[in-house]
Amino acid sequence: MAFTDVMKHVAQSFEAFGVGVLILGLVWSVIVAARIWRAAGGRRGYQALRETFGGVLLLGVEILVAADLIRTVTISPTLQSVTVLGLIVLIRTFLSFSLQIEIDGVPPWRRALTSGATVVAQAARTHRAGPSASPDAEG
């Protein structure tokens, strides 16, 4: 079996795995949302569905981009195929960016201001100063 034939099978495996992730992720997202809907109401169930399926879409897109990359680089590395791959990656990157904003509700650069080191530093300041410095403390 030639190298290109093996790589075709590898790329097809990635594509099948990506589609499987999307299908199973949809089922899983609906189950999670239904449980939350019964426990906490429709609004939270809908939000859970959006967040869980949005994460599944992001994962599926990343796997499908990997399949396209394998196919383009190993099977047909022509200028046209590389250009098409570049366009696919741009479209999928924009889609991933848009989905991430939908899931989190804020752009990534705004989320960075309220997560990670900022949160840790704020928690350290609050606990170092004692209970009277916490935002929930009554004065």
From TrEMBL:
Keywords: Membrane, Transmembrane, Transmembrane helix. The chain crosses the membrane at residues 16-37, 49-70, 82-101. InterPro entries: DUF1622 (IPR012427). It comes from the Bacteria. The keyword Transmembrane helix applies. PANTHER family: SLL0939 PROTEIN (PTHR38468:SF1). This is DUF1622 domain-containing protein. It comes from Planotetraspora silvatica.
